[in-house]
Amino acid sequence: MNVVEDNPSDQLKVGILVIGNEVLNGIILDTNSNWIEKRLSEIGVEMRRLVAVLDEIDEIGKALHFILEECNVIITSGGLGPTHDDMTMKAISLAINRPLVENPDALEIVIKQYKMLHERGIVASSHITESRKKMSLLPKDSTPLDNTVGGAPGIMFEYKGAKIFCLPGVPSELKDIWARSIHPWLEENNKQAYYEEIVEFPFRDESAFAPHIDSVMKSHDTVWIKSMPKTYGTSKVLMVWVSCRGPYLPELESQVKSAICELEKLSKLKTQIID
Q1: Where exactly are the structural domains of the chain?
Q2: Which CATH superfamily is domain 8-189 in?
Q3: Kind and range of the H or E element at 163?
Q4: Any idea which fold 193-273 has?
Q5: Sheet strand arrangement including 193-201
Q6: What is the pTM of this model?
Q7: Tens-place pLDDT, residues 184-205
Q8: If residue 17 lies in a helix (H) or strand (E), which one and from where to where?
Q9: Which of 28, 39, 55, 238 has the fewest Cβ atoms within 10 Å of its own Cβ atom?
């Protein structure tokens, strides 16, 4: 296996921007960000920031720039539809000072999708109204991403060296575009690997185990260890996540197993690896 040089400037650092009043008002539970985070972890891509904002132009713009401070990949969720409160594209256009223009490829996706939705009896008409045409207005120099489930295309563009993906908030549409467009891009551009093991220690009190974690993380400075107790009094088991990120998977596995071994020695207790 070839080793990829660990150049920090090449590492993908992802931020997620969740957009929608319905999320912050508690009307719906945001499952999209959690789903994306799991997909990122599976392929070793690092998550750095998660922000949720209202459907307000200024808030969306400020959040975008806040995430850009730390991340070179941004994934937004929500606000791409045909209604008045779907203003993600307008907000981003203003935030990056790039005009909205009608994208012929995006319009073709909208036409295709509403024809399909009409044929399936989901919408009454396939006519492309001004509200539907709104979904083909993208920031200049953007690339539309095909949506085979709903009406709104996803969007991809670059800004100040960062890659930005904008996805609909409907989970089925977001997952469809992810599988077709974003996951392949991440796989091609990711230079990092990730390895994790979840272990159990028979500790009831997390504070009693904390000094062992501190000691092992000092001696294994590339390894991250996180403990999570169950509700006090309900279990004598402490769950511990031991993970490592880097360019060479076998080395990551070796470091994680070494850290677990040292935890076992310090605590003088055996652990059970969870498959």
Answers
A1: 8-189, 193-273
A2: MoaB/Mog-like domain (3.40.980.10)
A3: strand 162-167
A4: Alpha-Beta Plaits (3.30.70)
A5: 223-229, 238-246, 193-201, 272-273
A6: 0.80
A7: 999 999 988 888 888 888 787 7
A8: strand 13-19
A9: 28
